[in-house]
Specification:
It is a multi-pass membrane protein. Helix content is about 70%, strand content about 0%. With about 550 residues, the protein is mainly alpha-helical.
Length: about 550
């Protein structure tokens, strides 16, 4: 930094000026005065440069710290105690080591659960972020007011009936009975089969391998027939409405994943016991641990999880109220933004202009439904159950909204499901292929996720229209490689959000058109291929008045 002469010393002396050349930067006037404007401009330039360097340095530091902490949390389970740790913390006692070991995955592999809060709970403590939450509440109030005003002008009275919600959640007694049967079967069958199989490995049975094949076949048949086909049959044969179908099918998928995690995590323990036999009997999980896992907001089984000491019942009530508020929010989004648009739409053969307008008009309700689904389920619902169960690891999602790549978005949007896919699909695929087909493992994960998502929508909506499957397998795979983790900077975050908005518009538009086409153009005796063909492609109907 250049050093400037003190202007006071130059003006106080009456003698002739003394030249102090400094690489030609300071221009002197005949009277010996330094050009003050030139000095100020140079200082301002240096100040701006310093501020830019400071912000850039802080941004890089924050990014590196976040990456370091994430990698530290994910990989700490596989790290052995090092002498460096003693520099930062005192050595742990034997009791503390045993307590910490309960939360570590077996054999130093897998997910480690730690005590941490949900990200939105931390962000809502900031006034600026909480104001955004208040803006969404204000938007809900406007939706309610607009609906009441329109109903009053049309009907001459205030219409407060929620006919759409009543229809969507119809036949709730049947839904509750079906869920109870599914839960009891998952509670008894996998645990009993695992206990019997573990006893067959102790040497009391003559053919342990044959027993393994037999119990494995019985477990597979239970997963496919009882948990797989029976709930779907009940949903279809009783013609349940959409929301009731979603409850049963989503619980079906959740319980299948839970049962697989329980078996997948405990079978290696028994197999390891058969080799060393350090204890008289293999380690079998307690029934209380299994019941806790079935209700816990995670799909990765552990005998013990980090727990909080108390239950904040006010927090639980707040989260359930927010779930209820999000449900009514979604109701008003469909009533005000979706139903008026698609109920009076002209169903005809493909029209490019009409399709483009439909997609762009569906972006706003699609984005609102996306936000509401994320907030209601991944934040409020899971946090409410976590609080009631004192479950301390609340990382159900990460900062997916800051993603600059779709690869990072897939990892951070739904951490609960991502962990299950990563440990039981991706890593097991690599283990079976001896780590030779990483691209194949990624493709297999995308295929499983796309098939399950499309299965849920097909059963819940009552028709087969593989829009989401195509978006997953085509654009999802393509963006996963194009918008990869090497893409940094705000422009890539903008591209990610733009693609996400367009995808939501396409989903809402095409599925809504197919829903009304199924109503407008029913098939009397449809063949199998006619059931697979989207009805909106062949249904032609004029403008519907009502």
């Amino acid at each position: 930094m250049p050093i400037f002469e003190d202007t006071n010393s130059a003006t106080d002396n009456n003698g002739p000026p003394t030249d102090h050349p400094q690489n030609g930067e300071n221009c002197l006037k005949p009277n010996g005065k330094i050009e003050v404007e030139h000095v100020i401009s140079k200082k301002l330039q240096l100040k701006r440069r310093a501020e830019f360097l400071k912000s850039d340095l802080m941004r890089q530091f924050d990014s590196h710290v976040n990456d370091f902490m994430d990698s530290l949390i994910e990989e700490s389970a596989s790290l052995e105690p090092a002498p460096v740790s003693a520099v930062f913390s005192p050595p742990l006692s034997d009791k503390e080591k045993n307590k910490l070991g309960c939360f570590r995955p077996p054999h130093g592999q897998g997910k480690q659960f730690v005590n941490r809060r949900s990200l939105l709970d931390e962000l809502f403590e900031v006034n600026h972020i909480r104001t955004i939450y208040h803006m969404f509440i204000a938007l809900l109030i406007l939706f309610i007011l607009s609906t009441l005003v329109v109903d009053f002008l049309d009907e001459g009275r205030l219409v407060l009936d929620f006919d759409l919600l009543v229809y969507a959640f119809g036949q709730l007694p049947l839904v509750i009975c079906t869920w109870i049967c599914m839960f009891l079967s998952v509670l008894l069958v996998p645990y009993t089969l695992f206990n019997l199989w573990s006893q067959s490995q102790t040497g009391s049975y003559s053919y342990p391998r044959l027993c393994s094949v037999l119990f494995g076949f019985m477990y597979l048949m239970y997963q496919v027939l009882v948990l797989g086909l029976l709930p779907t049959y009940i949903v279809v044969i009783n013609n349940l409405p959409p929301a009731s179908r979603f409850i049963i099918i989503l619980e079906q998928i959740r319980l299948i994943m839970k049962a697989h995690s329980f078996v997948r995590e405990n079978v290696p323990k028994v197999l390891a016991w058969t080799k060393d036999k350090r204890s008289p009997n293999p380690q079998v999980p307690q029934m209380s641990h299994y019941i806790y896992f079935l209700f816990a907001p995670t799909l990765i089984y552990r005998d013990k999880y980090p727990r909080n000491p108390v239950i904040r019942w006010g927090y639980v009530a707040t989260k359930f109220l927010q779930v209820l508020g999000s449900l009514f929010y979604a109701y008003y989004v469909f009533v005000r933004l979706c139903i008026p648009q698609f109920r009076s739409v002209r169903l005809q053969f493909f029209d490019l202009r009409a399709m483009v307008l439909c997609v762009f008009n569906s972006i706003l309700p699609g984005v609102l439904v996306l936000f509401l689904g994320f907030f209601a389920f991944l934040h409020c619902w899971l946090n409410a159950f976590a609080e009631m169960l004192c479950f301390a690891d609340r990382m159900f999602y990460k900062d997916w909204w800051n993603s600059t790549s779709f690869a990072n978005y897939y990892r951070t949007w739904n951490v609960v499901v991502h962990d299950w896919l990563y440990y039981y699909v991706y890593r097991d695929f690599l283990w079976m292929s001896q780590k030779r087909f990483r691209a194949g493992a990624m493709l297999f994960v995308f295929t499983v996720s796309a098939v399950v998502h499309e299965y849920i929508l097909a059963v819940c909506f009552g028709f087969f229209y593989p829009v989401l499957f195509c978006l997953f397998m085509c654009f999802g795979m393509m963006f996963n490689f194009i918008l990869h983790d090497q893409r940094k900077g705000p422009i890539w975050n903008i591209i990610m959000w733009t693609s996400l908005f367009l995808g939501q518009g396409v989903i809402i538009c095409l599925y809504s058109q197919e829903w009304y086409a199924q109503s407008y153009c029913p098939l009397k005796e449809p063949s199998f291929f006619e059931l697979l063909k989207p009805r909106s492609w062949s249904c032609e109907r004029g403008s519907i008045a009502d």
